[in-house]
Amino acid sequence: MRRLFGTDGVRGVANRDLTPELVFKIGFAGAEVIAGRSSRHRILLARDTRPSGYMLEDALSSGLCSAGADVFKAGILSTPAVSYLTRTQSFDAGVMISASHNPVEDNGIKFISNNGMKLSDDIEEQIEEIIDSGLKAFKRPVGTNIGKFYDYPDAISVYSDYLLSIFNIDLYGMRISLDCANGSAANIAPALFLKLGAEVQAHNVDLGGSEINKDCGSTHPQAIQHITVEDRSDVGLTFDGDADRCLLVDHEGQLLDGDHILAMSALYFKKKGMLAGDVVISTEMANMGLEIALGGKQISLIRTRVGDRYVLEEMLKVGSNLGGEQSGHIIFLDRAITGDGLITALEVLRIMRETGQDLKELGSVLTKFPQKIVNVRVEHRDEVIENDDFRGLISRYSDILSGRGRIVVRKSGTEPVIRIMVESEDLNKTEEIAGKIYSMAIDIDKNIKR
User: Fold this and answer.
1) What is the pTM of this model?
2) β-strands 149-151, 199-203: how paired?
3) Residue ranges per domain, the chain?
4) What's the sign of the alpha-carbon dihedral 16, 244, 24, 306?
5) Which CATH class name applies to 5-155?
6) Which of 16, 157, 199, 386 is deepest in the core (most CB within 10 A)?
7) pLDDT single digits (tens) 316-336
């Protein structure tokens, strides 16, 4: 069973949980499992803007080189850019140092295989086994067999050129507001949209990283809602710390999340004969309104467990080319093998241009059920979720909703919280049920502490 890896790599508070000593071991073990020793391997390494990224970059590089791999440092880059470059530029693996949407004190390590995909659970378990062994069973190379560091300054231009090559759209006359979350999108997105002819209003573009995700970005969408109206923009785009998520705002400041993006994209693709298998993949958190909107056009929705890696696995299994999460991780498989905030934004802008519809019109294809999502920060997540009284309460409320609503309670894969999602046709009932479940979780956790 995995101890270090969650649903999106290894995460923790940098220099407390995610120490340089641990990160060295992660680098060494990762190189052993992913690359092996059959030849000299090339590993692409990038980070988001967090100040701790410098420390972890050096520790990780040292671990990789100690296993005999050469490290190519790309500096500040997005996770999807690392995926694309690893897959297309003859790298044996890629590593991204980022905690995505988490606060600045957190950081994380995400490995990417040479096909551009995140690692499977089995491979992550192998890495953990090597770390747990203390690395003593592995002979380290010496002399010229030790790996080296190299700079890779062309990373952004190669990735941006790819995006421009697949989205030959003219955004002249369109005013776009950007919230780059003071993260990876800050050194990519503004220039990209300017090259496509848009009038760009860029916000939260500090590359220093101390304010990453702080009251901005896709986890704080009220920021882009306000900004878009103040800028009098046609569209607002907001990204997370490593730019694999994107949410949108129309000219009136109304938020469109991943469910909206999937709905408008699926209906457009279906009309154009581009929707593979007439099926869309999302997670158990997807709103029931999405299922209804797609079903009305004879499009099936398949739900997976939460995590874009599981969405991708199901897409590959059933042959779908469109999937994603409510949070804004959207996978356009004909464009990329992973969720990419910039590709998501460009796809929607392309649909706007080709249909002549504004974002408000496109978003109107989805009517959402009232949904309440609350996060409960508790010390004993497993004990709370497995508690008989807690499970009984969820079961009783599920029976009350009886097919006209849903309750999903799960552990976060990236934070020490329990996520509670309730949706039904009645807003008051939705909020009441979510509040009751939240309160019981807190009470159970307090009793365990005693």
Assistant:
1) 0.89
2) unpaired
3) 5-155, 167-255, 257-339, 371-449
4) positive
5) alpha beta
6) 199
7) 999 999 999 999 999 999 999
